[in-house]
Amino acid sequence: MAVAELDREVLSTIEEESPWKIIWRRFRKHKLAIAGMMTIIVLALACFLAPWVAPYDPISYQAKGENGQILKNDSPSFKYWMGTDNIGRDVLSRLLYAGRISLSVAFVVTIVQTIIGVFVGAVSGYYGGWVDDLIQRFVEFIITIPTLPLLLAFSAILRSFEFPGVPREMTSVIIITVILIAFGWTGSTILIRGMVLSLRNQEFTEAARALGLNNLGIILRHMIPNALAPIIVSATLSLGGVIVTESALSFLGFGIQPPVPTWGNMLNEYQSELWTQPAKVFYPGLAIFVCVLAFNYIGDGLRDAMDPRLKH
Amino acid sequence: MTNYLIRRAFQMVIVVLLATLAIYVILNIAPGGPLSGLKLAGADRKSRVSEEDIARLTAYLGLDKPMALRYLVWLLGDDWLGADWMYAGLTSFKQPKLNKEGKPIVQVDRDTGKKSFVYDSYRFWSNPGVAQLNPGYLLWVWGEKTGEGIVRADKVRVKPNKADQIPADMTVAVTVISQNGWKIIANDTNKNKYTVVASKETQWTFPEGEAQPLPAEGRWVNVSWLLGPGGLLGKYAGFHASTHGILRGDFGWSWKLAPGQPVTMLMKSRLGNTVTLMSTAVFLSLLIGIPIGIYSAVHQYSKTDYAVTTFAFFGSAMPVFWFGLMLILIFSWTFKQWGLPYMPTGGVAMVREAPTGSLLNVMGVTPGSLVDRLVHIVLPAMMLSLLYLAGWSRYSRSSMLEVLRQDYVRTARAKGLFERVVIVKHALRNALIPVVTILVFDIAGIFSGAIMTETVFAYPGMGRLYFDALSADDWPVVMAYLFITAILVVVATLVRDIVYTIVDPRIRFS
Fold first, then answer.
1. What integer pLDDT is reported at residue A295 of this predicted model?
2. Which residues of B fall within a CB distance of 8 Å from A240?
3. Rounded distance, CA B130 to CA B124, Å?
4. CA-to-CA dists, residue B136 to B159, B182, B365, angstroms
5. Which of chain A's residues have a Cβ under 8 Å away from the Cβ of B323?
């Protein structure tokens, strides 16, 4: 009986499971990755639903005391869980809205830079020759240079830049997103180039070409889907990196500018009150840390789940 | 090998030149140009920077010249071009440096006993026609009365000693009330109002000790615009007569952080601090990171291994700046709350005596001593070390794991060697090859790695200098920093490749 049951189970898994299901099954076993995913889901929900979740407006609300005086640098209370900042804004609300910006920037940057990286890498690996040479030299150059000084320099010179039709406080968000993308696409380029180089000479590529598929079609239909797994893993791992870099820039005052809150510029604001209100410095950093840790664990779990070497 | 080195050196030169071009162009084609920050401040009406000031500053800094020319000057200097035409309206003068009592400082040469003045060199934008004479200044004017109460000045002596014999040929002696460009409104001793009209031809005499000796061209020196609130460029603003260009090791003059000071000097004063900090951090993290990485690889899947990998994971996810703030929170804030000897939160050494209750006070350290500096470096070094430690333990662990899988390790074990010998002699030496090359690459990170740390701990090093320069739009400093970083990267790449061939004979370059 036990044998029959086992057989049925094995058979059913073979028949029904798609690759994604297999990955999910393996991923589930990685407890920390699951914990990371839960954390991210909760955090992302809280942040993206900030207009409904957050108790107060992050920018315009001012905490008022019983006598109508503005509560500046108020310590945590039942009404203001994390206290208020130096002009009476609710820290918790700001933290949630900040997460919205920080996470959105991280997602947008990662998605766009992965798309660019994948495309450039695929072209570079598929065509080879001088195109490949040129792209690879450029990528190597970007990877060797220490990026923080350059990121700082770029955001410093773009400080006064204005986009027509974009509210001024959102300008820095766009600029930082663009800068981070500009310096971040190289990782996935290298990855996919390697994959494409190995896939290029395989038989199914030959077959596709024989069937009359053009180069772009081969890249889009055969190369990229085949290289998808490592791309997803590296993109997940880079999410954390983007969050840290963005907060680092904002912390130094060269990133997203107040009043738009991000975890980085909140740290910058509260840094000066370290001696009077140390708890306020604690929260934004903790948010960054937890977020990055969670993303890294998810990436780790995905790698274990998707690594072809682990396939049965 | 020689051929290879020559080729690489040639490539290096090209890459460095390209880097300089990139740095210069990118920083200069930015919307608004290098003065964009200043313009922004002007637009916000935060400072009294007017359009005119910016125009003057642009000319003063030579920014009105074509970019190709400016790039060339930045690269090669302008001494071979003749400097002054680059910066229209620029004059310079020297005067003895004065001490607090207003007397010239005299320098005595130790060997020869020769006495000499210490000179301050000023190089000012001089705007012909606009002099700044403070109200209350006494003027002796020689000239011609051209109308009722109007004097056209040929010669003016500023702030004469009242006890002096009044020269007989003098036209009028007046006290300055206000000034509008060429026109000076003044009263004479009988309260008669005079308008003294000066011109480019007017000769000026300034008393000793005033900062207005006449420039060589006979132009008036207006330093008022330099002395805005906080200063556009500060009092000693200036451009040196000539620069030698970055390729000859002259990074020009700082615009704002230390106006008129050579960037090289500014960097020299900071470099030592950064190198001390970085080498401490790298050394500490190597000393701890590599052994624990090796240990956890050898004992893979043990509890220690899990602890090490978890630590590395946490360390790499930790935003370093926050970690630094937390260090301050723990070792300074909490310790102070608990009445324990607490750590200093920033700087490189004490400026004055340590406050009571602090660690330095408890230890009885004198400001500026070695112990003082050591105590100050503890927290920044801890912050930096964490970053490196996480990386190093990871690298060395994975590298060691890779090597332990190799056939020659199995062979060594099969030969019956002691495990210790296998690990130390066969595995470790090979596992360290990639580690060494990564270490070499950290040379390039010496400058950039410390921006965060130095900012959090207000540590006066290169990273902090770069950060300050960016905040203050001090572009010569920014460009110098980026240029040096580029060179370090290029050199590190070469050194890494050479080190590769030395430590790993399997790799050969041709």
1. 92
2. 317
3. 13
4. 9, 17, 51
5. 285
Spatial neighbors of B238 by CB under 8 A, at least 6 apart, are B92, B121, B122, B123, B124, B253, B259, B260
What does the alpha-carbon distance between residue B55 and residue B320 come to, in Å, rounded to a whole number? 42
pLDDT at A5: 58
Query: Tell me: the pLDDT tens digits for A58-79?
Result: 777 776 766 767 767 777 777 7
Q: Which has the closest alpha carbon to A62: A77, A84, A78?
A: A84
Q: What is the mean pLDDT of residues B113-129?
A: 59
Nearest to A274 among B328, B470, B485 (CB): B328
ipTM (interface pTM)? 0.84
Whether the Cβ atoms of residue A267 and residue A284 lie closer than 8 Å to each other: yes
CA dihedral B403, B404, B406, B411 (to 10 degrees): 130
Residue B418: phi, psi to the nearest 5?
-65, 145
Identify from B313, B322, B386 which residue to disrupt to test chain A contact, counting A C-beta atoms within 10 A and taking the largest count: B322
* Cβ pair B40:A285 closer than 8 A: no
If one counts every other C-beta atom within 10 angstroms of the C-beta of residue A201, the result is 8
User: Would you tell me which residues 424-463 of chain B have a C-beta closer than 8 angstroms to some C-beta of chain A?
Assistant: 444-445, 447-449, 451-452, 455
Residues in chain B with CB shorter than 8 Å from the CB of A159 are 36-37, 40
- Asked whether the beta carbons of residue A253 and residue B471 sit closer than 8 angstroms, the reply is yes
Euclidean distance between CA atoms B171 and B192, whole angstroms = 14
The upper half-sphere exposure of residue B242, i.e. CA atoms within 13 Å in the direction of its Cβ, equals: 11
Tokens linked to B414: 């099969």
Q: Which residues contact A206 (CB under 8 A, 6 or more apart)?
A: none
Q: How many residues does chain B have?
A: 510
Which of B31, B326, B444 is the closest to A146 by Cβ?
Answer: B444
Task: Say whether pLDDT at B211 is over 50.
Answer: no
| DSSP conformation letters of B308-369 | HHHHHHHHHHS-HHHHHHHHHIIIIIIHHHTTSPBPP-SSSS-SSPPPTTBHHHHHTPPTTS
Core vs surface per residue B259-272: b (16+ CB within 10 A) or e: bbebbbebbeebbe
**In angstroms, rounded to a whole number, what is the distance separating the alpha carbons of residues A206 and A195?**
16
Q: What is the pTM of this model?
A: 0.76
In the block, tokens 């140390």 appear at A278
What is the structure's pLDDT at B40?
Answer: 56
Residues 6+ apart with CB under 8 A from B274: B446, B447, B450, B454, B461, B462, B463
Question: CA B196, CA B463: separation in Å to the nearest integer?
Answer: 53
User: B470: closest CA among A306, A157, A305, A227?
Assistant: A157
- In whole numbers, what is the pLDDT of chain B averaged over residues? 76
Q: Count CA atoms within 13 Å of residue B151 on its CB side.
A: 25
Count CB-CB contacts under 10 A for residue A53.
14
